[in-house]
Amino acid sequence: MTQNAARAEETSANLDSERLLPVLSLMWKIRLFEETAIEAQREGLVLGAIHPSIGQEAVAAGICPNLRQADLLLSTHRGHGHTLAKGADPLAMMMELFGRAEGTCGGKGGSMHIADFGVGMLGANGVVGANITIGVGAAHALKMRRSDDIAVCIFGDGAINRGPFLEGLNWARVYDLPVLFVCEDNGFSATTRTRTLTGGPGAVARAESLGLPAEEVDGNDVLGVDAAARTAIDAIRQGGGPRFLQCRTYRMTGHTAVDPATYRDAAEVEEWRAHCPIARLEGALRLAGVDEARMQQQRTEAEQYMQDVYARARDAEWPDPAQAFADVQDIGNPAERAY
Amino acid sequence: MANTSYLEAGHRALREEMQRDERVWALGEDLGRGGVFGQYRGLQDTFGDERIVDTPISEACIMGAAVGAAMTDTRPVVEMRFSDFALCAVDELVNQAAKARFMFGGQMRVPLVVREPIGIWRSSAAQHSQSLEAWYAHIPGLVVVAPSTPADNLGLLKSAIRCDDPVVYMEHKNLWGFEGEVPEDEHLVPLGKAEIARAGRDVTLVTWSAMRHASLETAEELAARGIEVEVIDLRTLWPWDRDTVLASVERTGRLLVAQEAVSVAGFGAEIAATVAETLHDRLEAPVRRLGAPRIPVAYAPPLEDRVRVSKDEIVEAVVGMTRTSPSRVPAGQ
Asked: What's the gap between Cα B103 and its chain centre?
């Protein structure tokens, strides 16, 4: 058990339930958004691949509530949870998954390219690890501006075997940048176990070898993630330079929503189901004396909300085909013909 | 007007733009020491090490960081040292910089310039000599610039830095010492506009980058033989100045493209195809392309020379195009 997790359990009796009920609500929002999206994909409404983060909600919900809207977040192909937690509108996101005109990106990006610059969400990314160097650059710009806003870059365990991981962490240390790196470690690089592909002791040791303070937490314990994130974010904001957090978690679905994940056995999945991050937070809140009805209310409200999101996204307009030619570039934007 | 080198003109462009706009900064390897060719000499003394940033040899992170910084209200100028090295940062340029604005539905722009010196220069061999401009011209979202004169290096680099699109800016290494007249006052050259470097009635010769100079010298030699070649320097490859090229070929009826890059799938093919599609009935000779054979650039001068388009080849092509075509009826008769 990590230090933060121990601390979280010790203090469960006097949890700040008024602060944590919105966290529970956020986790339900993420869970139900993704369950709605998976169902909508079966119906043909979600068009391209989606990469659910069901089972991993404690990472997004433990980190993002500690951020300001002006802080900058960079996410991955498995980014619905991070994006929702940073404050993006679930309806606009669902419309984006459905490819509709009023989607977050006008239907041009889909699940893997959702960004909402209005809430400091600088983009999911379809290329593993690519968000690391971009996040480092955002942090570089923040430091140049003498801002006390920070950048947070969340990536999966597969990314630690890409070059930009080394280049980006080294860069952040060299220029002492205000950036939190979060390795959301679900154990799989797409459909292969990351430990079979990784030399040495792994992400934390690699980060430490580059001079970054690094910590590993139980990524299914939102209290532990929250505590570790808050400590790290405070330190970064005060000019302490980059930090690294590894959150060990588990992906309850396959790599994509249609991947049956036959490469792992059912017992393993069931074992992790018992560690469901939402159930664990509810357990902690129960111990702290929070009323069962109030907890149930978080779920019910999220369910009703997503039903409404689904219905409105389903009925939303498609983009005008002419939009295919918009926002390519200012100089030399293509005309609607082969040039 | 002052006589200035191509290198000094680029130096002045960056200096002026950094003075004009404090959001402009430059990052790359060895910039504090002036950059590999001296294009950044003294700039760190003027602007400090936060705006002229020495980076690790981490091309992917140099480019990726520039993308993130460009999304965060700064205007980075990336130095890639050699165009060849930028291949370590293709994801960051092609998948990220070029596509972010579109993928994210126009929420933001990525105003960065990546300087990628190109071209054959002093036995630099296969990994330091390439001209890959066609690769980038193929990518939606990118602007591609290849200046050939000191005045253009001043005016185009300044325009590139002011452009809100990601610009691939390809200076030619063999031109650093090339001198020419440069305006002393503010000088901007618009992106996407070609220059008719020499007017001529018989053949349109479209070129860019260092090949402009060999083309102009050859045109003078051909003029002595009574053949007037119109030399068009594209200056910007995307967007390329289609109107100027097509208007010229309408007048001359003949198109020759001369490029230093490998001819196969090079940018000359795009120009040749466009002219053939658009002006087929007006052509008095088949379109021609000159470029490098599809071999890597070698080290030894006799081998390196096999890649270069020579003046003799240009002469032979032009003479062949004017000889094999039916005799033209002079305009007005």
From this structure: 27
